[in-house]
Amino acid sequence: MSTSANGSWRIFRGDGVARPVSMPPAPPWRRFRAQGQAAAPPPYLVAREHADVVNAALHLRRPLLVTGPAGTGKSSLARAVAHELSLGELLRWPVNSRSSVQEALYQYDAIGRLRETTLSRDRGETEPTIGSFVRLGPLGTALAPHDTPRALLVDEMDKGDVDLPNDLLTVFEEGVFEIPELARLPEEMADVDVLTADHRGSVTVHQGRVECVEFPVVVITSNGERDFPPAFLRRCIRLDLPIPDEERLRAIVAAHLGPEILPEVDDLLQAFLRRRAPGELATDQLLNAVFLRTNDVDLDADGLLDAVLHQLTGTV
Hints:
Blueprint: H1 3-6, H2 48-60, E1 64-67, H3 74-84, E2 91-94, H4 101-105, E3 106-108, H5 110-123, E4 134-136, H6 138-143, E5 151-155, H7 164-174, E6 176-178, H8 180-183, E7 191-195, E8 202-206, E9 209-211, E10 217-222, H9 230-234, E11 237-240, H10 246-257, H11 266-276, H12 283-294, H13 304-308
Parallel strand pairs: 1-10, 1-11, 2-5, 5-10
Antiparallel strand pairs: 3-4, 6-9, 7-8
């Protein structure tokens, strides 16, 4: 009897009884850090014509504006570029309606500095430096001088304020910004070490000016919910990722979970393609269903397939 038939795949039983369990292996795309190191991202497949657009942005040192429906791999593209080019940890700026360019560049904790300075004086200790209270944001860290460019994901730009794209024009065009709190310091304090967004060190800022040596690899994603100003679009290289067809879906499944499983999951692929017609489904939903099938989970039981392949649009 298979594990799906006798129900042994169920870890949580919902009977209120506490019991020791062994967690099953996680899907490759849901494995995180191991021994303090960032896990490599799962394989990412992109068509040659789309890879050529990415290369054009790299050669021109321009931001790459990636559009397309949910689930087409816009954010994953940024991780894939950072991984393939060995650009280090991907810096991520998730945009929302309250996001501002200033906070993406840096944050200054004036209250924390005042408190720590007062405490140090009361204890007769050396006052902390101002750099201990300045942290570059993801955009600021990307623009800081590095030997090789950093990779920055500006995720879901269309969720931001309507003025946000225009606010980015000067920064993207000139690759420089100023921290006024540091620019006002006397000449003998011209060089200040400030913290970075990745929490892994610091960079030295001279006279409050942060200027990149190599323009960062910037990937901006958008779900197409709003149009951007022409001046902003002119400074970007645009890439529209289409919904993957059946052939590409098979290639994606094979890259993540092995080509040998394709014959076993053809029914899931066909179900995915049928359900995708009336509503949007993301590719990772198909991967979730395939992974469960390969771990002997009975996807036909109690509407589990409906839970995994639920539409992303419409009422909830």
